[in-house]
Amino acid sequence: MPRSLYLVASHPDAPQAQPLIDALSADLGTRFGSDGRDSFRDWQADDSRHVFLLVCNDDEAVGCGAVRPISDSIGEVKRMYAKYPGQGIGRAVLAGLEAAAWQAGYTELWLETRVANVEACRFYLKRGYQRIANYGRYAGRDNSACFGRYLGPVPASSQPELLPSLGNS
């Protein structure tokens, strides 16, 4: 796979996003019995604190992820997905989400994944996330693993390139 990855601000309803979200939902449903499709139920496209990014390689959308507000200072990472594992797509999505979250005014990111999703737990720990108490609807759920990370300014040299929004086109 060529290494020409770039980020695009988008929307969960964008046609380029749908195959990725569908693949993620199918994988989660098969592996864990729940597809997570309700993540965008309260999505507000006109709110700059709701972030949705696609990672593209040439003309193909190969990854996605979102941040939505939990509070004024805390954003929640949702729907992280890489179409081709082990290609740096997940790292690009997360780095883009962290930079966009900082620019949107968040100082911290939280997320939830399944305890059984060992690969995801390792991925977040390697990227500086720490296990935190289960929050919100995940409180008291033994099958959930919640993680958090404080954000800071991202040096310009390490920020992924973010191209203008695709919108719903």
From TrEMBL:
Pfam families assigned: Acetyltransf_1
Keyword NADP: no
InterPro entries hit by this protein: Acyl_CoA_acyltransferase, Bact_Acetyltransf, GNAT_dom
UniProt keyword annotation of Transferase present: yes
Keywords: Acyltransferase, Transferase
Gene Ontology molecular function: any one: acyltransferase activity, transferring groups other than amino-acyl groups
Transmembrane segments: none
Gene3D superfamilies in UniProt: 3.40.630.30
PANTHER family according to UniProt: AMINOALKYLPHOSPHONATE N-ACETYLTRANSFERASE-RELATED, AMINOALKYLPHOSPHONATE N-ACETYLTRANSFERASE-RELATED-RELATED
Protein name: GNAT family N-acetyltransferase
Species this chain originates from: Hymenobacter busanensis
